[in-house]
Amino acid sequence: MERATKILVAEISAGILMHNVLCAVLAGIFFPDPSVFAGLFLGMVCAELMIVHMAFCLERSIDTGDYSAANKKTVAGSLLRNFCYLVLLLVILWKFPDKINVLAVVIGALGLKTGAYLQPAVHRIFCKK
Question: How many domains does the chain have?
């Protein structure tokens, strides 16, 4: 990965972490069940894996130089990410419904969106000159 992409991924990861820490604090107040915390943690791990995979897919797509091939690689990467996430949610529902809260996994993974929205603010905080 290029240096700029690594920095961007780190800034989004910081936003993901902030999102999940806030969710964990709120869960500790309103839903102090260990399955909720396990779900939030698993969702955070999923969000981190998804952002790293997105970064690799986008760099690989840009390196092709061909718009059509880049579009196909990007779509294929997105489908793979979503399929793996769906399989994970189904496995949790099927095998571990009492140990891991599926809704908490989804809320934890939504930290990816929050991290993307917080990235400019995190960038300003970390890159003060």
Answer: 1
Model confidence over 33-50: pLDDT tens digits?
999 999 999 999 999 999
Q: Are 115 and 47 in contact (CB under 8 A)?
A: yes
Give the range of the structural domain holding residue 94, as residue numbers without chain letter: 3-126
List pLDDT tens digits, range 85-96: 999 999 999 999
Within 1-127, strands assigned E span none
Reading the block at residue 42, the tokens are 């698993």
Question: Interhelix angle for 34-64 vs 111-126, to 10°?
Answer: 70
Contacts of 92 (CB under 8 A, 6+ apart): 39, 42, 100, 102, 105
